[in-house]
Amino acid sequence: MASVEDQYQKAWQLYQEESHLDPDSEPYKSKYAAREIFEELKSRLSKQLDEDDVDDGDEGTFTEEGVDGVGLTRARMAAVVYHLGVIAVDTEEFSTGEEHLNKALTIIGDDDGIASGVSSASVGDAELASAALSGDAESLLSVNSETTSVNPTAINPSTVALAISCHNQLGILWSNRAMYSTAKCHLDRANTLYDEFQKQSTKAPRTLHSLFSSSERNNSWDDNSGAVALEKLHTLTFYYLAQVYGHLGAPDKSAWYCHSTLQRQLASKDYDPVDWSINAATLSQFYQGKDKFRVARHLLASASKVLLGHEAEVDTSQTDTDDSTHRQEKFRQCRADVARCWGRYCLVLLQVSCDKAIPENPQEQSQHQQESEEETLDEQLEFLQLEVSDLESEVAASPVENFDEARLLFLSGLRWLTTARQYYTMEDHASDHVSITQEMSHLYKALAFFEPSDERRCKMHKRRVDLLAALVQELNPQYYLYVCRQINYELAETYSAMMDNKLDLVEAGTGDPTPPQAKKINSLATSSIQHFLHYLDSLKDETTGEQPLAYSEDSVRPALVAWFHLGRLWSKLIATDPQTKLQNLAQSLQNYKRIVEYCDKHTHCQPIMAQELAICREMVQLLPLKMEQFRILTR
C-alpha cells in the first residue's frame, strides 16, 4: 500500500495540475479522482486516530507543535478534510463543502471561529444594505466587529495556515451565497488568527503540504516557505475582505483593503505585473472620485512604473505560441487601460478645477483641515518600494487655477487618451473607442472654461464638434441608440456654446452683427436645433411616432432641458425679414409652452425643472406681448 505521503502527493497532483487538462465533457474528472484518494486518506487517518485511542476531549491537543504522534495525525486529518471541502466547493456541492470546512476547523479546535461566522453574525445583510443607502454602513460595520477567543491549537505553527485557509474558503463560500456579513465574519477571523499567531508564536508556520512530507523532514521543514505561504494567505484574506466590504456598502474600507493587498503583493514580490498595474490604476479611480488626487496620482504612477518594468520582458518574448501571444495582447490592453485611467484623472481634475473656480460659501479653515488629513493619508498609502516621483511630477495633484496650468493638464490628458484610443479602435472596440473620444471632447470643454478669449474658446468647441461628428457618421443608431443620443445631445450643447461665443464677440464689438457674423450665428443655432431634434426624435414612441405622453425617469430632465434649449435657440436666430422673425418667436413660444404644460400635468417634474420652469412661465407671458409689439412696429 502506498504511504500516506505518496497518496497525498498523488491526490494533490490530480487536483492542482491534471484538472486543468480535463476535457469540457468531463470538467471535474481529475477533481473527482482526487476526492476518492482524499476519502481513502481520511479513512486511513481515522483508523490511526482510533488505534492511538485519543479521547474526544483531547481533539485540540498537538504534541510537539503537531510534528509527531497524534498531533501530526490530527493535523493531517484536518488538512485532508479541508481539501475535500475545497473540491466540493469547486464542483458546486456547496453545502457539502461548508460541512467539510467547518469539520476541519473543529478538528483543529477553532469552534469559536465557526460560531463567529454563522451563529454570531450580529449584523445582517438586509440591515447593512439599508445602512449603505443612508451612508452609515462603515460605522455600523466597525461598531459591530466582534472579537472571539482564540484556541491555542488554532494558531499552532502546524495548523495556523490550515485554519486561515478554511476561513478564507468559507468567506468565498458565503460571498457566493450573497451572505456578505457572514463572509466578513469568517475573513475577520482569518485576520485575527494571523495577528494572534504573529504575537504569540516563536516558531515558523508550516505549510499544508509539509504535513505530508517525508519523515526525515518532519522536524526540519523550510521555515521560509511556511512564512511565505502564511503571508500569501493573509494577502488573500485582505483581497477577499476588499470584495466583501464593497458588497456591504463600505467603499472606503474596501479601498483600504485593496490598497493593502497591492502593498503586500509588492513587498512579497509575488504578483503578476499586468494584473497589479490594472488593479492599481482602477483603484485610483475611486480616490479621484473622492477628490484625493495625490493618492490617485501615486497609484497611477505606480501602475505605470510596474508596467514599464514588465515591458522589456514582454518585448524579449520571441516565442510564437498561443500563450505568448495571449500575454502580449494582455499587456497591450493593460497599457491602454492604464493610459485611459491617466486620461480620466486629468479630465476629472480639470472638471473639479472648473467647479472650484466658482466659489460657494468658502470655509477656508475646514478646507485646510481636510487637506491636512488627506496629506497624512497620502503618506500611509505610499508604495515605498517604488520610486515614482519622476512620473508624478509630470501631472498636477491639486486643482489648477489658470489657463496655463489647465493647458498642461489638458495636454497630458489628451496624450494619454490618444494612446488609449490607438488600442481601442472603432473597428475592434467600438464602445470603448466612442467613450474615449467623448472623454477627449470633455477635456476640450473643461479647457475652454479657462480660456479668456471667446474666439479661441470657439475653436476648442469646434474641435469637439469634429471629434463627435465623426462618431455619429460611423455609428449605426439601431445598435448604438443610447450612445447616439448622448453624442447628439453633446453636439447640440456644443453648437449652442459656439453660438453664445459668437454673440459675445458681436456684443464686444459694434453690438450689431455683420452679415457674415449673422450667417455664422444662424448656422450654429440651426445645427444645435437639429441635433436637439435628433435626440428628441430618438425618444419617440415606436408605435405612434410621437413624443411619449410621459418620459422615463432617466430621460425626463434631459428631454425637457432639450425643449428649453430649443425655445432659447429659436429666439436667438437673426432674421431681417419680419415674417421670419415672427415665425422664429412663435417656435420659441411653442417650446416654452410644451415644458409648462408637461410640468403642470406631471407635477412631480416641477422640482427637477424648478429654475428652467420659472423662466418658461415668464417667457410664456412675455413672448406674446413681444410678438404683438413687433407686429405693430412692422405694419
Low-confidence stretches: 54-61, 63-68, 119-123, 215-221
Query: What is the CA-atom radius of gyration, in angstroms?
Result: 33 Å
Largest sheet: none
Secondary structural class: mainly alpha
How many helices does DSSP assign?
24
Measured by DSSP, the beta-strand proportion falls in: under 5%
The H-and-E topology, N to C, reads as: HHHHHHHHHHHHHHHHHHHHHHHH
Number of strands: 0
Portion in helices: over 70%
Average residue-wise pLDDT: 87
Straight-line distance between termini: 115 Å
Polypeptide structure, described:
The structure is a single chain. Among the domains are: 4-215 and 222-271, no CATH class; 272-358 and 387-452, no CATH class. α1 packs antiparallel against α2, α5 runs antiparallel to α9 and α18 packs antiparallel against α19. The chain is built from 24 helices and no strands. The protein has 635 residues and is mainly α. It starts with a helix and ends with a helix. The model is unreliable at 54-61, 63-68, 119-123 and 215-221 (pLDDT under 50).
Name the descriptors.
about 625 residues; mainly alpha; 24 helices; about 0% strand; elongated
Describe what is shown at a glance.
The protein is mainly α. It contains 24 helices and no strands.
Write the layout of secondary structure elements.
Layout: H1 4-16, H2 29-51, H3 69-90, H4 94-107, H5 111-117, H6 125-134, H7 137-143, H8 160-176, H9 180-200, H10 223-247, H11 251-268, H12 273-289, H13 293-315, H14 322-356, H15 364-380, H16 389-392, H17 403-423, H18 430-450, H19 454-474, H20 481-508, H21 515-537, H22 556-572, H23 578-601, H24 610-634
Helix pairs in contact: 1-2, 2-3, 3-4, 3-8, 4-8, 5-9, 6-7, 8-9, 8-10, 9-10, 10-11, 11-12, 12-13, 12-14, 13-14, 14-17, 14-18, 17-18, 18-19, 19-20, 20-21, 21-22, 22-23, 23-24
